[in-house]
Write a structure and sequence with these properties.
alpha/beta; four-stranded antiparallel beta sheet; disordered N terminus; Rossmann fold
Length: about 300
C-alpha cells in the first residue's frame, strides 16, 4: 500500500525552490534509480512511480514506509502543530531552562569544514530548524526548513552522492536503526564523514515513537562500518539527573501549564547541577551516566 497521507493538501504552486545540487542526487526510494525532476513532480523511469513536488519540496516516501506502519494521522498532526505553532516565549523558555548543556556545536562545525566544499551535507531528521546553512534537511514530514520528505530506512538519494551525513536524536525513533545506518553508508561518498547523536539516559519521547537507547559501546557497534574519528558524551550526567528528577515529579500531571511550571521551577533550582557538566562531562566515566552520546566517523570504502 503506497503511503501518501503526509502530503499537504496544497496544490503545487509552480515556484521551483529546489536547488540543482539537491535535485541532482535524488533517487527513487524503492528502486534507487535517478529521478527526473520537474517543478511539480519527480518521475522514476525504471519503476514508473511519480512523486509530488510541493512548493519546491519533493515528497519521496517509499511504498509501505516502515515509519508509518500502524500510525495514525493524529500523531503526525500533533507533531506538526508543536513544531509550527509553539509560541516563541515557550521556545525561548525551553532553551534557557533546558535540562543540559549540549556540547555538539563544534562537531557541526567540524563536519561542515570536512564536507561542505565536496558536496551536499544531508541532515537526516533535520527540521524545523537548520543547524547550519550548509545542511540539506530530510524529514518524514514537511516541517519548516525541510528540503526533502523521505524515510531514513530507504533514503531517496543516489549511492555515493553526498559529502556528509548528520543524524541527531533520530535513531531512537526508528524501528530498524541498523537499516538507517546502512542507508547513510550507502549514500555517503568514500572519504565522507558522518555525525550521529543518540540518547542514553533519557526518558521516553515519542516523535512519532521511541524504541531504543544506546551505551557508548553500543553506539560504536552500531556504527562499526565507519572508521571512528571521535566518540563520546554530548549531554552529560548532570543532564540525566535533571531530566529523570523533573520527569518523575511531573508524572501525575496532565496539564501542560502545570508541567512547564514544575519543570521550570526545578530546573532553576538545579542550574548548578546543569553547569557542573562542564567538568563532569569530561571525566572518563561520564559516558556511563550520560544523557546523550555522539559518534563522528568516516566512510573508508
Amino acid at each position: 500500500m503506497e503511503v501518501t497521507h503526509m502530503v499537504r493538501s496544497k496544490e503545487p504552486t509552480g515556484l521551483f525552490m529546489m536547488s540543482e545540487s539537491v535535485a541532482s542526487v535524488l533517487a527513487c526510494p524503492d528502486c534507487r534509480e535517478k529521478l527526473v525532476v520537474s517543478e511539480i513532480r519527480c518521475d522514476c523511469t525504471k519503476c514508473g512511480r511519480s512523486f509530488p513536488v510541493v512548493e519546491g519540496v519533493p515528497f519521496l516516501l517509499p511504498q509501505g514506509s516502515a515509519m508509518f506502519a500502524d500510525r495514525s494521522d493524529n500523531l503526525f498532526r500533533r507533531m506538526d502543530g508543536e513544531y509550527r505553532h509553539t509560541p516563541g516565549w515557550i521556545k525561548s523558555a525551553k532553551t534557557i531552562l533546558s535540562g543540559g548543556l549540549h556540547f555538539g556545536q563544534k562537531h557541526f562545525d567540524t563536519i561542515v569544514q570536512k564536507s561542505a566544499s565536496s558536496g551536499i551535507i544531508l541532515n537526516v531528521g533535520g527540521g524545523p530548524t537548520r543547524e547550519r546553512p550548509q545542511f540539506t534537511n530530510l524529514n518524514i514530514s514537511n516541517f519548516p526548513n525541510v528540503d526533502v520528505v523521505g524515510d531514513a530506512h530507504m533514503l531517496p538519494v543516489l549511492s555515493n552522492s553526498v559529502a556528509g551525513v548528520v543524524c541527531c536524536a533520530v535513531l531512537e525513533h526508528v524501528r530498524e536503526p541498523i537499516r538507517c545506518v546502512n542507508e547513510m553508508l550507502r549514500v555517503l561518498m568514500p572519504g565522507g564523514h558522518v555525525y550521529i547523536e543518540i540518547p542514553f539516559m533519557q526518558h521516553f519521547h515519542g516523535y512519532p515513537d521511541d524504541y531504543q537507547r544506546w551505551t557508548l559501546h553500543g553506539l560504536r557497534y552500531l556504527m562499526r562500518m565507519f572508521q571512528e574519528v571521535e566518540a563520546g558524551v554530548i549531554l552529560g550526567p548532570g543532564a540525566s539527573l535533571i531530566e529523570v528528577f523533573d520527569s518523575y515529579l511531573t508524572l501525575p500531571f496532565k496539564n501542560q501549564i502545570a508541567i512547564y511550571a514544575i519543570k521550570g521551577f526545578l530546573r532553576v533550582c538545579l542550574l548548578p547541577v546543569k553547569y557542573l557538566d562542564i567538568i563532569m562531562a569530561k571525566t572518563p566515566a561520564a559516558h556511563t551516566l550520560a544523557s546523550g552520546l555522539f559518534f563522528l566517523g568516516q566512510k573508508v570504502r
